[in-house]
Amino acid sequence: MKFEAQLATIRAPMHETTLSLMHEAALAGSAVLLDAFAALERLEVQSKRPADLVSEADLGAEAAIRAVLEAARPELAFLGEESGYQAGRAGESGGLEWVVDPLDGTTNFLCGIPHFAVSIALREAGGPTLAGLVYQPLTRQAFAAIRGQGATLDGEPIRVSPRRSWERAVVATGIPHRGRPHQEAFTAELAAVGPKVGGVRRFGSAALDLAWVAWGRYDGFWERGIQTWDVAAGNLLVREAGGVLTGIDDGQDPETGEGLIAATPWFHPELLATLRAANRSVL
């Protein structure tokens, strides 16, 4: 199906645009998250463990998001971090699916750190993202994009950073979890990048890291071993804001989250070459 036809199919009659539907769904999920985030402050008088509350918030937020999306577009497939893949109506989905991370930044949320997001994307199954939204519940910031129409923050256009300097560049990354692959590679990468840039940040939400690259706050972002629902919306934001996004290693698909680097057009080849050289040093 050509993109123009796909775009026509994703406009639901009861919503002015697909993004308004996604925003409505994000607000529904955010309401669940904000209630749970406030409840974390009161756990000392409850028997419930913080991890239990976060798990309930994750599940509840995804259910709230899914309810809004399915009420408007029941024929579309759904891929959620918590519930997995649910097929749409046979022959009616047009090959489209929602991809949802109801709470990106779980550890931040659990520890009371106010930096987490809802990520919702609509994409061709196994193909490109057509529309994406990253919503920060606490700041109420909505980063949004439709393929071919640019990226916005709260309705205003955004672009990647114009900086062309290693010394002024600020980059974001994610640290591999204990016991997972990529730790040796990451250590070498950080040692290579850190001394060259103005700063390295690790804020704990890949969706927001990508949104901030699109917003021009970060010059680049790289991470290994994350999931497709972490990046499905954010990757589109970067591309539509004028950024470049690829895998870190040859053959990696950045849409899977296996390994990705997102950066400004000037900084991307510089950062990619540095990361690959660092990896050769540990082979």
UniProtKB/TrEMBL annotation:
Organism: Plesiocystis pacifica SIR-1
Family designation: Belongs to the inositol monophosphatase superfamily.
Superkingdom, taxonomy of origin: Bacteria
Family matches, as InterPro entries: IMPase, Inositol_monophosphatase-like, Inositol_monophosphatase_CS, Inositol_monophosphatase_SuhB
Protein's recorded name: Inositol-1-monophosphatase
E.C. no: 3.1.3.25
GO molecular function: inositol monophosphate 1-phosphatase activity; metal ion binding
Any single GO BP term: inositol metabolic process
